[in-house]
From TrEMBL:
Native organism: Mytilus coruscus (Sea mussel)
The protein, known as: TIR domain-containing protein
Gene Ontology BP, a term: signal transduction
Lineage top rank: taxon: Eukaryota
CC annotations in GO: vacuolar proton-transporting V-type ATPase, V1 domain
Length: 665
């Protein structure tokens, strides 16, 4: 599964091929799981004289793994998903992952200090049994994988075990020693491979020096270990560190050769087709690898898997093709022998919703959406649906929500995905960008690694949308595909350097300036828009707010003659358009009070309203009205209209219409 929660599947990592077997009794299986977990918890501190675990502990651990094997082979996807959810829930309840990590770390430590890396024979079986469970859990649950990644002691000792075996994994003198080492190394590599797929775990794994420990195994004679290490390193190595993997092209070429032989031979051993597709996707995650992965034949291998693969394998394949397509669009379109387009078109009609959605997104990315976007810019989309689009990753949701609320409070029409963008259709993603006046790119490490975020942002960039950059993560500098998009665009720091209120106000101010520029208005947006409840008021602010409130209260109570007197004294001019005069004369005191409130709460909407609904399009009319609104105070207006009315022809009777104000930007 993808580290961003947007990957194609959420099932056990190393699925076995489904074979004929008796139907699984779900209730009985889950009861066995609960019983096993309970026994493990009760015996966690009851090590024997000769070992770290009791016989009851080991028997329960073996039974637990047998139950997981049954679950993974369940043919009914709904029953399988339900049992997996219960497995995760009960594992959390009994803290099984925490217990296993502690005991495994203690066992691994016993190998230190020997002339050669070796764990006592009686410890090997329980160690591998626990590793098997951790591998399963780290595949099906991001939360449980996070528990493993946060156990610093376990990670350090697992890494140390890899370092100890870096030379002995080639040992020919002691066959048993080599076999023991390969079993342990493979399990550790599988586990690191699984937890590294979740982006939130990567800093913890890097902190344990896993990169340095795994690099020597790229030359292992064990193909599975080589595949796992290459895929894991692809997840751990950042774009700026692309030179970390020496002879990268050769390593990827070897990887594709191994995968080709495995697929052609039809014997996958412990590595399923789903896992093979996932490894290709991981290795191709870094842009610096994508060209090599495609160059050495990944696409035909992936297409071949879709021909005979099951639904879960197809999910992984389409996700891998989508990732590789960002830098290989032309090749995928022009090379007809690869059958990429026809394969994706076929899978876009799949009965499986995930396969269908991922196929459509891949087709959208591969197609020339730059030209399509330029055409869209020329279309009349109408003002009613225009908005500010917040493009974000789900991991920054709390801060994003505060930005969203701040924009809403200032009458700015804003749109964001309230659910994870992974479920958004192609039409929804493109429409969101097409209707946007400005796109806020809220970037982070997770954002950079999200295919959905990349597709949305690159589309906005290539269709010429105004982009504001919001930095959401301290210590992360945008690289890879994000770097050229950020370029010279304005960047506002939300990583905690400044108070949140200050940075939200910066965003609102920048948006208002851009909208005012587009609308041809000049507005002062230098005043704070959002103030912290804990922040003391600035000197004079209380008086200013009081005067503003008094002016609004006063205007609210104006009679129609008072409104007319105010208009004649402050606004109306002989050279003003008659249509504007007629619109102004329909205003009530309540309308003027509302406009005074609007000019401070949402200046963009204020200027749009007087321009579109009151007909004020020249600077003189707009400035007269703006300053007249600003200077409304508590003075009672004289209702003797004789001196003023001589300047204009007015009727003795008039029809008063309510001004309808529509708040849009």
């Amino acid at each position: 599964m993808s580290a961003l929660g947007e990957g194609p599947s959420d099932t056990i990592h190393a699925d076995s091929e489904i074979t004929n077997h008796e139907p699984v009794d779900c209730s009985k299986t889950i009861d066995s799981v609960k019983t096993s977990l309970k026994v493990i918890k009760e015996n966690q501190n009851k090590g024997t004289k000769d070992g770290f675990v009791t016989k009851q502990f080991q028997d329960a651990a073996l039974l637990l793994n047998e139950c997981i094997s049954l679950i993974t082979k369940t043919e009914s996807s709904s029953e399988k998903s339900n049992m997996l959810r219960q497995l995760i829930q009960h594992s959390e309840e009994y803290q099984t992952v925490e217990i296993y990590c502690k005991i495994c770390a203690d066992i691994l430590e016993t190998g230190e200090g020997f002339g050669y890396p070796r764990i006592n024979t009686e410890y090997i079986k329980p160690l591998l049994t626990m590793f098997e469970f951790l591998v399963h859990c780290s595949s099906v649950s991001e939360k449980l994988s996070g528990v493993i990644s946060r156990d610093k002691s376990f990670l350090i000792k697992a890494t140390k075990e890899l370092e100890d075996w870096k030379d002995y994994h080639r040992c020919e003198n002691d066959r048993k020693l080599k076999e023991e080492g390969e079993n342990i190394v493979e399990m550790i590599c599988r586990l690191l491979h699984n937890i590294s797929m979740y982006v939130g775990n990567v800093p913890n794994i890097r902190g344990a020096n896993c990169i340095g420990a795994m690099k020597p195994f790229l030359e292992s004679e064990n193909n599975i270990i080589r595949l796992l290490c290459l895929a894991t390193l692809a997840d751990l190595v950042e774009e700026s560190e692309s030179g970390t993997l020496e002879s990268k092209s050769d390593s990827i070429k070897d990887l594709m050769s191994i995968i080709s032989n495995v697929i052609e031979g039809g014997s996958y051993g412990d590595c399923s087709l789903k896992e093979i597709a996932r490894i290709i996707q991981q290795v191709g995650k870094n842009d610096s690898n994508k060209r090599f992965v495609v160059q050495h034949g990944a696409i035909p291998l992936l297409v071949k898997i879709t021909e005979d693969g099951n639904i879960e394998e197809q999910r992984e394949v389409v996700y891998a093709i989508w990732g590789l397509s960002f830098d290989n669009k032309t090749k995928m379109i022009n090379n007809k022998e690869w059958k990429v387009i026809s394969t994706l078109e076929r899978l876009s009609n799949s009965s499986d919703k995930k396969v269908k959605l991922l196929s459509m997104k891949a087709l959208w990315t591969i197609s020339d959406y730059q030209n399509r976007g330029i055409e869209q810019k020329d279309k009349e989309t109408g003002g009613v649906n225009r908005h500010i689009l917040i493009s974000h990753n789900w991991g920054n949701q709390p801060v994003i929500k505060q930005i969203y609320d701040g924009l809403k409070k200032n009458c700015i029409n804003v749109w964001m995905h309230v659910h994870n963008i992974q479920g958004a259709t192609v039409e929804a993603m493109s429409d969101d960008v097409d209707q946007a006046d400005i796109v806020l790119v809220c970037h982070s490490y997770k954002y950079m690694n999200s295919y959905n975020c990349r597709a949305e942002t690159e589309y906005a960039h290539q269709t010429g949308k105004k982009i504001l950059i919001l930095k959401m993560e301290s210590g992360y500098e945008a690289d890879g595909w994000l770097e050229p998009i950020i370029g010279n665009n304005l960047q506002i720091d939300f990583s905690g350097k400044d108070p949140l209120e200050k940075t939200v106000n910066e965003v609102i101010g920048a948006i208002q300036q851009e909208l005012n520029r587009k609308n041809g208005a000049v507005v002062d947006v230098s005043k704070p828009i959002i103030q912290s409840d804990h922040e003391p008021a600035l000197p004079g602010m209380a008086d200013e707010n009081a005067n503003r409130t008094n002016g609004i209260d006063s205007a609210m109570n104006w009679t129609l003659p008072q409104v007319e007197k105010w208009l004649y004294d402050k606004i109306l001019r002989k050279d003003m358009f008659l249509s504007t005069q007629r619109q102004l004369k329909t205003l009530r005191g309540k309308d003027i009070a509302f406009l005074k409130l609007l000019v401070h709460e949402c200046p963009t909407s204020f200027y749009q309203t007087i321009r579109e609904q009151l007909g004020m399009k020249d600077i003189q009319s707009m400035s007269d009205f703006r300053f007249a609104i600003e200077n409304i105070d508590t003075t009672v207006i004289d209702t003797d209209l004789h001196s003023s009315s001589k300047q204009f022809t007015s009727t003795s009777t008039r029809t008063v219409e309510t001004t309808k104000v529509r708040l849009t930007v």
